[in-house]
From TrEMBL:
Coiled coil: none
Protein name: Alpha/beta fold hydrolase
Source domain of life: Bacteria
Entry annotated with the keyword Disulfide bond: yes
Length: 301
């Protein structure tokens, strides 16, 4: 496959129209169709069965193909990026009410972007694209919008994608070749919230929930892999969730408890507290909103 053809494919897999501004975010329903936990578990378990790298590892290799796969979006003071779970729709997902609550807390200041990745059962292929896309979004936005800060939300496979994107390549399960988040962009990440994280590590201090601290997830990340952002992370896991609490107990209910157990609101409250701490950075001395640093971006053809 020629390099020019690969670059063309990268451009077509960018984020056309994925930005969801405040009005659309408020219109999203809080009622989501729960994922199928058994299918999710099976697809995540398949990640370790075949040691061969996926085709996406070369297709999205950052050294071979350094051009970003995304164009910048608007320079809202805050950009909330959601990464949905396996089989979830881009709207009406578990993370939609979390993002909506954050938007309502800062009217007019929050852009919401659903990460454009497959979120299907081919986790190695789709997850690699997800990690590359997340890294490029953060780096491109940090370059285009000097005042913008980021909030990252991930559920199930989406938590794997976000966590691997923030970790160093050697600590990743997917996306080892797709580059890294620039230090400047990483510094702008205000908050990271996970639900039902397959890379859950029970011993981490940022964990929240009824989990057993001696039990890890299906694909635990190396302990300390997220040390660079650990004070900004909340990783929610409930007892019996066989995605973030790997076990032989195949009760499917706990992995979808996050839709109704109040942890969506708790995660949003954590993020809003983090926004409060950073809010002054987005205001001029006269109290007016800092204008965007770049024009409205053009859509990519």
């Amino acid at each position: 496959m020629g390099e020019s053809h690969v670059r063309g494919m990268l451009r077509r897999l960018s984020l056309p129209g994925s930005i969801v501004l405040l009005g659309a975010a408020l219109a999203m329903s809080g009622c989501a169709a729960p994922v199928d936990p058994a299918t999710t578990r099976e697809s995540l378990s398949d990640v370790t069965e075949d040691p061969a790298p996926p085709e996406a590892a070369e297709l999205y290799d950052a050294e071979l193909h350094p051009e970003p796969v995304v164009d910048p979006v608007d320079c809202d003071p805050y950009l909330v990026i959601t990464a949905r779970g396996t089989g979830e729709p881009s709207q009406g997902q578990l993370l939609s009410p979390v993002a909506r609550t954050i938007s309502q807390a800062r009217p007019g200041d929050v852009g919401v972007l659903d990460l454009d990745y497959p979120a299907d059962t081919d986790v190695k292929e789709g997850g690699t694209l997800g990690v590359r896309t997340l890294i490029d979004v953060l780096n491109v936005q940090a370059d285009a919008c000097p005042a913008q800060r980021f909030v990252l939300l991930g559920y199930s496979q989406g938590a794997l994608v976000v966590g691997d994107g923030l970790a160093e390549p050697e600590a990743r399960m997917v996306g080892a070749t797709v580059g890294t988040v620039a230090e400047e962009a990483l510094d702008r990440v205000l908050a990271v919230v996970f639900y039902g994280d397959p890379r859950f590590v029970g011993a981490e201090e940022y964990n929240v929930g009824s989990f057993d601290p001696e039990t890890d997830g299906l694909l635990p990340r190396p302990e300390g892999a997220l040390d660079a952002v650990e004070e900004r992370v909340r990783d929610y896991c409930v007892a019996g969730d066989f995605i973030c609490q790997s076990s032989l107990d195949f009760d499917e209910e706990p992995h979808v408890e996050y839709y109704s157990n109040g942890m969506q609101g708790d995660g949003a409250a954590f993020v809003i507290t983090r926004l409060d701490d950073a809010g002054a950075e987005f205001r001029e001395e006269d109290g007016e909103r800092t204008p965007p640093s770049t024009p409205t971006p053009r859509p990519r053809s």
